[in-house]
Amino acid sequence: MNITILGAGALGAYFGARWQEAGAHVQFLVRPGRARQLRTYGMHVVSVHGDVTIKDPTIVEKTENLDETDLVVVGVKGYHLQGALPTLKTLVEGGAKVLPLLNGIEHLYTLQKELGEENVLGGLSYIIATLDDRGHVVHTSDLHDIHFGPLHPSQHDVCRKLTEVSNGATMRTLESEHILTDMWQKYMFITAFSGITTASDLEIGKVRAEPSTLQAAKKVLQEMKQLALGYEIPLTDKHVAAGLSKIDTLPAEATSSMHQDKRKGLPLEVDHLHGGALRLAENIGISLPSIEMIHALIKPYERGD
Ligand SMILES: NC(=O)C1=CN([C@@H]2O[C@H](COP(=O)(O)OP(=O)(O)OC[C@H]3O[C@@H](n4cnc5c(N)ncnc54)[C@H](OP(=O)(O)O)[C@@H]3O)[C@@H](O)[C@H]2O)C=CC1
Ligand SMILES: CC(C)(CO)C(=O)C(=O)O
């Protein structure tokens, strides 16, 4: 299977390296800065599941230099999605399907509108990975999961191929027949988890220790359920309870990637996650007061230092 990784950052480089290790033909489509970094320091993953170095990674800077692509895996941040659309359009015109792994949901509707519903699969990832100062992936938890699935009948074949190549790779994959609901469930969780840890500047253990702060996280989960229902996505109180149980059981020192980005002074995906929820709510005439408050508290840090 020919896979192109668009956005070879922490998440994209991790999974791209794992697929290549398992024998897939992987091309990393990158911008000049990341290309220089990869050529200087190499593509290396340090992981609790075993390190891997890709000896001669295929680094491509121009779409016209890519070999044929079956699947483009999108691993850019939400705030870079617009900039990636022209490249994605070209790849789709060449016959590729697109698997976005971003956190959030608004990108899915954007991609479907811009690229055609038949071309965009559903996907999400659970992983804790970051890049070090040489651009090597540092993967620090047991999680390295991708859930993906068809959102159009024409996508079953590419899903089957992805399952085949992933079965031999060092990662966990789940092909889901209800991927849209799964994406919303993760969206519900990440909006609460990233929102509460970033807005309070606290790791999850300290959030749990203060009942009123924990209650705010619960309200975000409930508002996300209300939003999902407004879009006919069947999230229930069980999903809210599952989100709370995750918040209850994460190690005390655990925090979200958004909170880590804030600590490092990096740009934040707050417009994509919380802002996206507010826009979706406005479209259907509902209000989400807790999410609005969390959004307002994080927004000043959006651009980083
Ligand atoms: N990291 C994690 O543990 C997890 C991340 N996620 C989600 O995955 C997504 C990606 O996160 P993460 O990997 O951490 O982000 P990173 O910032 O590490 O990587 C994003 C990469 O996208 C590249 N990029 C941006 N625009 C383009 C473009 N037009 N063409 C090519 N490359 C481009 C950036 O390159 P450049 O250097 O040129 O800016 C960067 O290397 C986010 O939505 C995040 O929420 C989900 C679960 C966990
Ligand atoms: C919750 C987690 C770590 C799982 O992938 C995540 O997506 C994030 O913090 O951005």
From TrEMBL:
Catalytic activity annotation: (R)-pantoate + NADP(+) = 2-dehydropantoate + NADPH + H(+)
Domain Ketopantoate reductase C-terminal stretches: 179-302
Domain Ketopantoate reductase N-terminal residues, every copy: 3-151
Protein name according to UniProt: 2-dehydropantoate 2-reductase
GO molecular function: 2-dehydropantoate 2-reductase activity
Pfam hit, one: ApbA_C
Species per Swiss-Prot/TrEMBL record: Pontibacillus halophilus JSM 076056 = DSM 19796
Known pathway: Cofactor biosynthesis; (R)-pantothenate biosynthesis; (R)-pantoate from 3-methyl-2-oxobutanoate: step 2/2
Stated family: Belongs to the ketopantoate reductase family.
